[in-house]
Each structure stands twice: as structure tokens, then as C-alpha cells.
Design a protein that fits this description.
- There is one protein chain.
- By secondary structure, the protein is of the alpha+beta class.
- The chain has helices at about 10-15, 20-30, 45-50, 60-65, 80-90, 105, 120-130, and strands at about 5-10, 35-40, 70-80, 115-120.
- A 4-stranded antiparallel sheet has the order 2-3-1-4.
- The two termini are about 20 Å apart.
- It binds guanosine-5'-diphosphate.
């Protein structure tokens, strides 16, 4: 049992449909504490840097356009095994493959507009958190 932090984004398809509260309720029900949260538009530069690992993929330009198409909610989540727990609550990348009751199964519009991002490892969580949040913006 490790107390961990992970990085989460509520994506533009979800903010457009006013789903922030419903998604937050699912995160909190799973035992995750929202220890930092801010709503903003990602710049193209930020979206490209955030998804740089996908820059050779055919969907990269579409993904950047989608992630800058509306406001996002950036979050730091804390809890026991937070990275894994959040990935479980999120569900699979493609909503068609996402397990019943997961956020993506319930809310995602497509494999791209899939409502939430969650870090895939504690190492990436630390990198992603420090890209968007100063230490003084995170409260237990
Ligand atoms: P995640 O960790 O589950 O978010 O999945 P990935 O890291 O593989 O992909 C990052 C994001 O790129 C996903 O959440 C989707 O928004 C988008 N994405 C992934 N695969 C595809 C795809 O095949 N087509 C499109 N259009 N977008 C994709």
C-alpha cells in the first residue's frame, strides 16, 4: 500500500457537456482525493509537449486540435496506489473496450474524445504534475 499522486485531465468533450462534477464524484468514490485542480485552455504548445510521445502517430494533429478545442480541468489526485486506481476508474482508451461502470464506458464519445487522461506510471505522474503545477498549488 503506497500513498501516491497521479495526474488527471478532464478533457474538452467532458467540460463541454458539464460533466466535471460527475467525473469528480467517481474519482472521489474510488478513494482518490483531488489535492489540486485548475480549469484552463491548453495552448497548442502545451498540448504538443504533453503528448510528445505520440508525435509520430497519425492521430497526433487531431489529438492536439481536440485537446485545445475547449477548456480542460487539470488535477492532481492522491490516494493508495493512485496511478493504478485512477486507470481502473477511467477504463480502457477506446470506450468500446472499457469495462462497465468506468468513466470512459459511461461518458466517452470516441477513442479520441474519451473524457479523461490519467498518468500510466508513478514516474510519468511526477513529470506530468510538475509540468502543470507548482508544489505550492498542491494541498493534502
Ligand atoms: P491513454 O493513456 O488511455 O489516454 O491512451 P494513450 O496514451 O495511448 O493515448 C493518448 C490519447 O490519444 C488517448 O487518450 C486518446 O485521446 C488519443 N488516442 C489514442 N489512440 C487514438 C487513436 O487511435 N485515434 C485517435 N484519434 N486518438 C487516439
Amino acid at each position: 500500500m503506497t500513498l501516491e499522486r497521479t495526474f488527471s485531465i478532464i478533457k474538452p468533450d467532458a467540460t463541454r457537456r458539464n460533466l466535471t462534477g460527475q467525473i469528480n464524484a467517481r474519482l472521489e468514490s474510488a478513494g482518490l482525493r483531488i489535492v489540486a485542480q485548475k480549469r484552463k485552455y491548453l495552448s497548442e504548445k502545451e498540448a504538443k509537449a504533453f503528448y510528445a510521445v505520440h508525435q509520430e502517430r497519425p492521430f497526433f494533429d487531431d489529438l492536439v486540435a481536440f485537446m485545445t478545442s475547449g477548456p480542460v480541468v487539470l488535477q492532481v489526485l492522491e490516494g493508495t496506489n493512485a496511478v493504478l486506481v485512477n486507470r481502473e476508474v477511467m477504463g480502457a482508451t477506446n470506450p468500446a473496450d472499457a469495462a462497465k461502470g468506468t468513466i470512459r464506458q459511461e461518458f466517452a464519445e470516441s477513442i479520441e474524445a474519451n473524457s479523461v487522461h490519467g498518468s500510466d506510471s508513478p514516474e510519468n505522474a511526477a513529470i506530468e504534475i510538475s509540468y502543470f503545477f507548482a508544489g505550492c498549488e498542491i494541498t493534502e
